[in-house]
Amino acid sequence: xxxxxxVNKILAEFWGSMLLVATVVGSGIMATNTSTDIGIQLxxxxxxxxxxxxxxxxxxxxxxxxxxxxxxxxxELMQKRISLGQSLxxxxxxxxxxxAGTALAHAMFAQEIFTTSSRVRSGSNxxxxxxxxxxxxxxxxxxxxxxxxxxxxxxxxxxxIGAGYxxxxxxxxxxxxxxxxxxxxxxxxxxxPESVFMFISAQFVGAIAGFFIVKIIGGRRxxx
Length: 224
Hints:
By secondary structure, the chain is an all-alpha fold. Helices cover 73% and strands 0% of the residues. It is built from eight helices and no strands. The longest helix has 32 residues, at 3-34.
């Protein structure tokens, strides 16, 4: 791989992660600024996230694969689609991009650049929710890849995350770097630092579960 191509890949992961989190946090702030109804706030946050995911995956998937998510990168590494060195750089860029996204959202709304969230999210039901949300994400991505329907990735991945906002108790974080970044905002989309480890643990459990579910129901499709 040419060095220029590799730089483009990791920059795509940085910018994609940054814009994703800027949307999640920014739309959460906008939601609470415009409505006191928690249902409307959640819908604003959900639709903004779905729309931006469709855009980001559509334009950046041809460059980097549009992971924006260490759990996705881990599964790609497990399937030997990406090298260990590249995966580590991807994760580093995803995390720094995500944190930069929180800062960007705060700056756009004239808030303190970094704050600590006080929104505790705990309980076994949330742990289970994150397992389901992340496993489903891995399932959608990898079955579409196996079935060679990559053109559907921007839409079905985004729709899964959007659905997860509304049907899981955790509102479907499903992304370790996004989870960490959201601990730096004391807004609608925030998560208290003490809740981060539980969420990330569940996300990696879900990613591995999703990987094995794909192996079981997808099987080998090398000749498709």
